[in-house]
Amino acid sequence: MTYEEIVEQTRKALSKMDASAVTEHTAVQVNIRGEGEGAFYIELEPGKVSVEPFEYFDRDILITAEGPAFMQVMNGEIDVINANLTGKITAEGDLRKAEVFKALAEKKPAAKKTTAAKKPAAEKKPAAEKKPAAAKKTTTAKKTTTAKKPATKKTTDQ
């Protein structure tokens, strides 16, 4: 992967980010080592995300990584903090500000629809012969009800 491809894929990944969720200015310099070696920066401001192919000396965070490891962060496969803790990348500076990148890691890829292989249809057995139902003896119960008399008010004369 070339330096230009890494920068472009970073732009693409961050373009999906909801920039309105950014609450404070954050500047991140990214140093790619190995294949695609180079430096670029990511600047996050409320409502705006920029990725530019320059160094950013007044940065909040400095990330150093191999290209594939950094792209795992940008693709949301792992967040900056966990990538730093596991040694996939090195991150220095105000890592509290790296929390803004967690939104990328929290994105879950849509589940792929898989179609289950259809099972071969089982051969249908012929229906059993139906016999006429035997006549049922029915009885009806006589329902009796008792009517209630309306309540009368007793009055006493004195």
The oligomeric state of the chains shown is: single chain
**Name of the CATH architecture of the domain at 3-105:** 2-Layer Sandwich
Task: Report the principal-axis shape.
Answer: globular
How many alpha or pi helices?
A: 4
Q: What is the rounded distance between the termini?
A: 112 Å
Sheet with the most strands, sense and barrel status: 5 strands, mixed
Helix content: 10-25%
The gyration radius over C-alpha positions equals 37 Å
Can you describe this structure in just a few lines?
With 158 residues, the chain is of the alpha+beta class. Helix content is 20%, strand content 20%.
Would you mind describing this structure in some detail?
This protein has helices at residues 3-15, 67-74, 80-85, 102-106, and strands spanning 26-33, 38-45, 48-52, 61-66, 89-93. The protein is an alpha+beta fold and 158 residues long. It has a domain at 3-105: Nonspecific Lipid-transfer Protein, Chain A. The protein has a five-stranded mixed beta sheet. A hairpin with a 4-residue loop joins strand 1 (26-33) and strand 2. The longest helix has 13 residues, at 3-15. The radius of gyration is 37 Å and the shape is globular. The termini are far apart. Mean pLDDT is 78; it is low at 108-119.
